[in-house]
Amino acid sequence: MEEQPLLRVRDLVKHFRMPRRNLLRPPDVVRAVDGVSFDIWRGKTLGLVGESGCGKTTTGRTILQLMRATSGSVQFGGTDLCQLSDKELRRYRNGMQIIFQDPYASLDPRMTIGKAIAEPLMIHELSQTRQEARERVQELMERVGLNPYFNNRYPHEFSGGQRQRIGIARALAVDPDFVVLDEPVSSLDVSIQAQILNLLQDLQDEMELTYLFIAHDLRVVRHISDRIAVMYLGLIVELAPGLEIYDGPLHPYTQALLSAVPWTDPRLARKHQRIILEGEVSSAVNPPSGCRFHPRCPIAEEGCQVESPDLREVQPGHWVACHLA
Amino acid sequence: MGMDSSTQPETPHTTGSQADRMPLLQIQELHTQFETKQGTVRAVDGLSLDLYEGEVLGLVGESGCGKTMTALSIMGLLPGNGRAVAGAINFEGKNLLQCSGEEMKKIRGGKIAMVFQEPMTALTPTMTIGRQISEAMEIHLALSREEARERALELLEHVGIPSPRARFDNYIHQFSGGMRQRVMIAIAFSCEPRLLLADEPTTALDVTVQAQILDLIKQLAQEAGMTALFITHDMGIVAGSCDRVAVMYAGRMVEVGPVDDVLLNPRHPYTQGLLGSVPSLESKPGDRLYSISGLPPDLVSLPTGCKFWPRCPLADERCKEEEPLLEQYGNSRAACWKVMPLREVLGE
After folding, report:
1. How buried is A58 (Cβ within 10 angstroms: 0-12 exposed, 13-18 middle, 19+ buried)?
2. Contact between A181 and A214 (Cβ < 8 Å)
3. Which of A8, A45, A67, B107 has its CA 20 to 30 A from that of A26?
């Protein structure tokens, strides 16, 4: 862990301004990401988990500069992407790719998949001739487990798992270093999910890819991640090596999340005491004072409403933001 | 373990004394089909399944395996040109497939209730949630408007809606996902049904809310001594919430038995594959997951023999030609020619 991380995110903030409802009052601001910091080392996977609305997707897109950060920095191989102009960014774009939950929504229904996979090659001028592009597409399709024979077919002719393979081939076409995977298997059936997870792991090993794996299924995240960050209302509340977080979660929110994981072993399901959280996630427009988790926290004390806890290292490599941990 | 065992009625695992009890719901050789331009889609293809009083049965399988169509056949709510073309669904001495539209209306929401995956599409957006709950009770329980209102308020409180009086006149879009599902559960339980069908009731929810909702359904069903059919794709939900589990593949049941037996000692290679595909607490991160190769079959042109053979690592000539029937193995039943060799492989 001594070497420089490939990606270094510091105090990343992304706020969205809501449409003004009342002329006399300032517009509401959704504090989607509100000061997030972490590192990812080359060839490793950071799992980013949390419930809907916690800011995990926004974090991924802001890192890729698909939306510009409100403040903070994203250092990618030593360059702060947040400081670059759109034009300067183009040079870095093929180093970073994203794979979406629903590849169908991200594929043009009127473009054959062969063309769709070749498109990034042409845009980034990675293939000089059509012949070269064709060969590369064939190679990519084979690599992700698609029959190259089907390159003239349209997205609707493929199943969900196959479409996700197309999405992966497209992302890998430009030979990236870093890939954001945003819920890449959550809309797939379990048997297909396993195929895609295995493929992603093989590709990581072969190409030394670095992943930010965003998901809400803690079983999948445990399987694929080296380290895991848990987000709640725009902030990271716990960050630790994968197994450590499962063996000894320190933040009460992480503890509740993990106790709710539906493990497939019925003996475990009976033994596990579920921590049922009261209520639902608060609004990101007016987050609670102090620790944002305090209204739902089973162990909150008076001080938790006042002071916001910092993310601090309590064991080597294990960070937690809780006054009581 | 002969062929004759396949004709014995299945028994719930709890106690032997329940073995001779009549099932509350009995599905016999159900065939549900859709006519399409491509041909006849065999959504449910000869399913037989018994549900015993007071049990929670999990019906699992992947998209398109026929689990939702089974529930909709029970409810008489098949979409489009879907039709239950053969078989019987016996409930309280009646074959639901032969009930008239009027009879089914009385049963639906009354004796049999259903909770859907997406409450937003199952509830009326233009009617207050209070009205939606009390309407069902006015119809099925013949309560007066005032009585129904009081009871609806109790129900809302019981399912955990904060300040029910204030929320009574709200519309469904004013609720969060978890709260919507609570409203739908309140409606489902309002007429004290004997049978609850829950179709992926928590799939659209976050994990912590999912746990809340599962516990709520379990608690309410226990209080009312209700029988429930839990449709899910997630073996983890089966492990935590069900007594027995039936695994479906291509419109048929391939394995059924008590949850502990099926999940800890799966007999059918498909069940084994499903369980192996989900990362567990024992699996080491980075290990390859067991994955079932290929895709589910086209329901218009099903393979001959065992429907799973094109994806099965153990399939041989017999599997391609002859269809296996359900047979008893220990406490569970499975339809596979290869179960014996499998057990030998595992060294049992």
Report:
1. buried
2. yes
3. A67
Q: Mean pLDDT, to the nearest integer, of B150-165?
A: 89
Is A191 part of a structural domain of the chain?
no
CATH number of the domain enclosing A81:
3.40.50.300
Interface of A with B (CB under 8 A): 51-52, 159, 161, 189-195, 197-198, 201, 216-220, 222-226, 242-243, 246, 256-257, 259-269, 274, 276-277, 280-281
Residues A49 and A74 in one domain: yes
Which of B38, B235, B278 to mutate: most A Cβ within 10 Å?
A: B278
In a domain, A128, yes or no: yes
Question: Are the C-beta atoms of A319 and A240 separated by less than 8 Å?
Answer: yes
Q: Which residues of A touch B236 (CB under 8 A)?
A: 219, 261-264, 269
CB of A160 within 8 A of CB of A100? Answer: no
Look at strands B39-51 and B227-232 and give their pairing.
Answer: unpaired
Q: Which residue of A has its CA nearest to B262?
A: A266
Tell me the mean pLDDT in the region B12-29: 68
Of A191, A220, A268, the CB nearest to B281: A268
Which one of A146, A199, A209, A264 would you mutate to disrupt binding with B, by most B Cβ within 10 Å of its Cβ? A264
| Residue A11 sits in the same domain as residue A157 | no
Q: Are strands A178-182 and A7-17 parallel, antiparallel or unpaired?
A: unpaired
Name the helix (H) or strand (E) containing A319. Answer: strand A318-320
Q: How far is A222 from chain B (nearest CA, A)?
A: 6
DSSP code for A41: -
Q: What is B20-111+193-345's CATH number? A: 3.40.50.300
Residues A113 and A154 in one domain: yes
Q: What's the CA dihedral at A141, A146, A150, A155 to 10 degrees?
A: -90
Distance CA B337, CA B70 (A): 25
In a domain, A187, yes or no: no
- At B158 the three-state DSSP class reads helix
* A251: pLDDT strictly greater than 50: yes
Q: Are residues A169 and A207 in the same domain?
A: no
A79 and A224, same domain (yes or no)? yes
- Residue-range domain boundaries for chain B: 20-111+193-345
Look at residue A184 and tell me if it is in a domain: no
Q: How many CA atoms lie within 13 A of A262 on its CB side?
A: 27
Q: What is the pLDDT of residues B90-134, one digit of tens each?
A: 999 899 999 999 999 999 988 999 998 888 888 889 999 999 999
Q: Which one is predicted more confidently, B15 or B69?
A: B69
Query: Each residue of A1-41: pLDDT tens digit?
Result: 457 899 999 999 999 988 877 888 888 899 999 999 999 99
